[in-house]
Design goal:
mainly alpha; 312 residues; flat
């Protein structure tokens, strides 16, 4: 097949998909059926209505998704078996506050891997124009780019989850002090948590908003707090929730408990800061030894060396 014929076939496929999309977007001439009009109002009680609403149209995207769905599902299971279980990914998604599901994240990983493979092949082809590139090198570049595209989303997700958990830990003392003030003013625990969720703008306030949303639909407050604590797996928050649940069960004064927990959280932050400074002490010696000290020696010895050379 000649290159011109290949380009013509590709352009024809793109033109056909575009015309198909335009035809699918045309409005329907007749009125919709009664079942289609009633289905949105009975989704919670009718499986047939849910199946009718989940029915995909005839646009190219839905047809391609239906055709490639089983293949993507099997490939996602293979990626899961290769990289580990879905429990870790689900926990990191929850910690990072990402609304994606595990299946959607695996699909994104596959797309990144396909993009990385394409970039690797493109780079290999560009290198082959300027130098002689062996086929094994092309394969190695494609595999390396594919592996990078497959692992990069997970690394970014891990970094995002760690950053968000650090922000939650930093916001915890302030939120606890606000809760203690609200309780001291006579509000209930539920009202105080709702006030923080409404007025707060941080990540911890967002998590409390999820807790209050669960409480609004009938979940007990202690159970909702324990569920959020188990999902985030933050030690400081777990201690606070445990103390709060114990105080609610036994009728202990919550104001003093929350103030003590806020002070403990601040002490933990100070201790972590000192530990981080101790770990960074060796790293801080690198620019001192390899940059500042040599420059200082050069500035100290260069004038004397220049005078000696001019004198002799």
């Amino acid at each position: 097949m000649s290159p011109a014929l290949g380009v013509a076939i590709a352009l024809g496929v793109v033109l056909g998909l575009g015309l198909w999309t335009l035809v699918a977007l045309l409005p329907r001439m007749g009125a919709s059926r009664l079942a289609e009009r009633v289905a949105p109002y009975v989704l919670d009680v009718s499986a047939e209505a849910r199946a009718l609403r989940a029915h995909r149209g005839g646009e190219p995207g839905s047809v391609i998704a239906e055709l490639l769905g089983p293949l993507l599902e099997r490939t996602g299971r293979g990626v899961t078996a290769l990289l580990g279980g879905d429990a870790t990914v689900e926990r990191r998604l929850r910690q990072s506050g990402t609304p994606l599901t595990v299946a959607a994240f695996r699909a994104r990983q596959l797309l990144w891997a396909a993009g990385g493979s394409g970039i690797g092949i493109l780079v290999a082809l560009l290198l082959s124009r300027s130098a002689t590139v062996s086929p094994p090198l092309v394969v190695v570049l494609a595999l390396a780019a594919t592996a990078s595209g497959l692992l990069l989303p997970e690394q970014l997700l891990t970094q995002r989850a760690r950053s968000r958990m650090r922000r939650v830990a930093d916001e915890l003392p302030t939120v606890l002090e606000f809760l203690s003030l609200a309780l001291a003013a006579g509000e209930t625990v539920r009202d105080a948590l709702g006030r923080v969720a409404r007025t707060g703008s941080g990540d911890l306030a967002e998590e409390l908003g999820r807790v209050m949303a669960d409480v609004e639909v009938g979940v007990p407050l202690t159970q909702a707090l324990q569920h959020a604590s188990a999902a985030l797996e933050l030690p400081a928050l777990s201690r606070v929730v445990e103390q709060l649940v114990t105080a609610l069960d036994r009728g202990s004064p919550l104001v003093e408990v929350l103030r003590a927990q806020a002070q403990d959280s601040r002490d933990d932050a100070k201790r972590e800061l000192l530990e981080a400074a101790g770990r960074k002490e060796v790293a801080m010696l690198v620019p001192l030894v390899f940059l500042i000290l040599p420059v200082t020696i050069v500035f100290a010895l260069f004038p004397a060396t220049l005078v000696l050379e001019l004198g002799f």
